[in-house]
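Action item from last week, closing it out:
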Amino acid sequence: MSAKSIFSLVQGQPTQDGNRVPLTRLVPGLGQHGAEAFRAMDPFLLMDHFGPMVLNPGTDAGFPPHPHKGFQTLTYLIQGAFKHRDSTGGSGLLRPGGAQLMNAGAGIVHEEMPVPEQLETGGPIEGVQLWINLPKAHKGSAPGYTDLQPESMPWAPLPGGRIRVLAGTWAGVTGPAQTPARMAYAHLELEAGARFEQALPEGWTVAVVPLRGSVRIEGRDVAADTVALLGEGERLVLAASSSASLMLLAGKPLGEPIAHYGPFVMNTREEIEQAVLDYQQGRMGHLD
């Protein structure tokens, strides 16, 4: 099987979100690169690498209440601890190595804030949030969330590294996250010089996103906080140019129309207008 080549390289854009949380927007939405960004990364909509940062004692940095509708978020924590609350009454603790899969579906309001002890004492925070589009048939589904604790997706050893699989199957390991969109998602760490190979379904969107260090794919270097969107070929083949930490994404495109406005992703402009109205009139619930 032939190795996949790089179709495009996109440098992540530094920005802030929530309460002054520094992040790098790795998979941008309509706001930065137009509809082509969504079509190129289908079924993935957005990917943010937040941190790494060290909270100062007494800070209120985090992600206070905000709405979503029409997609799912998969938030993976590398360092720190976050407390989740949402308008369905759900709550949970996100620990290092754990994740949270939230189905916005028909509409939800949620917040993710560092745990009270960390707000008081400060400490490191780092993680990755991925937005996954929902097929039209699931955009009206009941909102809710699932905790994916570190114990449910432990590191698996590899030659020259290790892998933690959140969804789908990588290196023979299957992750716990279940989504209507068919996808595979993992955190890979490699020592300098180590190689990784994986066969992938034909026609799937495939991207490699280093968070630290760099990797080499088909003779091209991919640096930290850069998205390497891969093109033709049946097999992902990469080697670590230096000690590297990276996210692996693969998903079957939905191929559906996309309408987008801020935290809402639907299929038509009329559905977006209804989403805004639903939020304004409190039909997505509230957080006290």
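Closing note: Confidence is low (pLDDT under 50) at residues 30-34.
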